[in-house]
Amino acid sequence: MRDNFKSSFGVLVAMAGSAIGLGNLWRFPYLMGTNGGAAFIIIYLVLVFLLCLPIMMSEFVVGRRSQVNAFRAFKVLSPKGHWGIIGMLGVLAAISLIAFYCVVGGWTIDYLVHSVTFSLPEEGATEGFFSAAVSTPGRTLMYTYIFLIVTALVLLAGIKDGIERYTKVMMPVLFLTIIAIAVRSVTLPGAGAGLEFLFKPDFSKVTADTFLNALGQAFFSLSIGCATILTYGSYVKKNEKIVKMSSLTAISDTFFAIIAGLAIMPAVFAFGISPSEGPGLLFVVLPDIFDQIAGGGIIAILFFFVLFIAAVTSSISLLEVCVTFLIEECRLRRRTAVLLSSGVCLVLCTLCALSGSVLSDVHVLGRTFFDFFDMISANFLMPFCGLLVVIFVGWKMKREAFVDEISNGGTLPNTKLYNVIFYLVRYVAPIVIAVIMVFGWMKQI
Ligand code: PHE
Fold first, then answer.
1. 357-369 per-position pLDDT tens digit
2. Which of 209, 248, 230, 214 lies closest to 383, judged by CA?
3. Which range is least confidently modeled, 156-160, 268-272, 322-326?
4. Domain housing 22
5. DSSP code string of 38-59
6. What does pTM read for this prediction?
7. Number of domains in the chain
8. Confidence band, pLDDT 50/70/90 cuts, at residue 432
9. Domain presence at residue 251
10. Does 17 score more than 70 pLDDT?
11. Is residue 1 domain-resident?
12. At what angle do helices 208-222 and 429-444 cross, to 10 degrees?
């Protein structure tokens, strides 16, 4: 018998737990910083709600209708043809995401350890501290491995006891600490320039690149395009409401991203840090803010702890894609499947973790392993997989089947809305993704 999520709240928490993570707090602020601020945010918001939310619902529909892993799901729904490839692509995307996600997860543990021992850097020393953290091979590797091991341990406990119980506790704490940080950040002297950066769009800097980066970030943050929502959906009971769950997930995820922007950007300007600092942005700015808050030392501990938990609830959803696949397709026991997939990830994580030190000169497509896996998953594999999902749902699966699943067998009344969603999936989504990918890639290669 397949495991299932017990309650609606459990599903929602697991989905939001997957979506809310380093993508909101680490990746969103730095990408927004390198892509021009407010204009990026606007493009991002439009893409999330018009494009990615319907894609999320599509993945959910495929998962719940088939009740199997990503690869088999497409075969069950359409036995003829090679649609299973979409699922494989999702699994591949999930693996390449874990490769660098664990490294950043490792940084959060590193910072947590330093906050517990009250040895975070002081103002002015934060950049040096961060570059030491990423360029000391033993240190990065150790924390990366710890992060991966924690992820694997949670998954060993299985769906109900692992993911569901674990995820429920941390959201409110994460929310409160990030709000506290945002309040301090916007009240720092000199924060005004940061607020302007966040809210005053300058469209003259927008290029095809900006769109591709916003699209990649939307996929990354909502956990779509890598079979995660599909896999979670396959564990969801038939009476749960797909539209409601997906919308709540997207809304809470976006809310966290915006608050993270508010927490980081004003401080970036107040401390004279460059907004286009890159992947280190969050880790360079935060210690400076904690320095400025009464009781900042304690808030730092709390913050890095919940950030770490948020990252784990995302990484378990990624690894679970591979684990479910191995259990069902290779008939492995859960334990063996977890060990095998973590073993593969360990090798890839090692490459990414050493990108800041011994492997810094090794480049794939002109990028270090860390940047390569980040770029190939967010800007290529995920949108591409999303494109195939919407083509499958919009053109291969019948509209009746889609509406039947999303309306819980016709028991939910909103037929008009479901038709609109279907047409967004069928026409708008494929065209927009294809155009953004083609133009974005012409610029990036
Ligand atoms: N959405 C997660 C985050 O924002 C990352 C993630 C991507 C998790 C894809 C699962 C699947 O951190």
1. 999 999 999 999 9
2. 214
3. 156-160
4. 8-444
5. HHHHHHHHHIIIIIIHHHHHHH
6. 0.95
7. 1
8. very high
9. yes
10. yes
11. no
12. 120
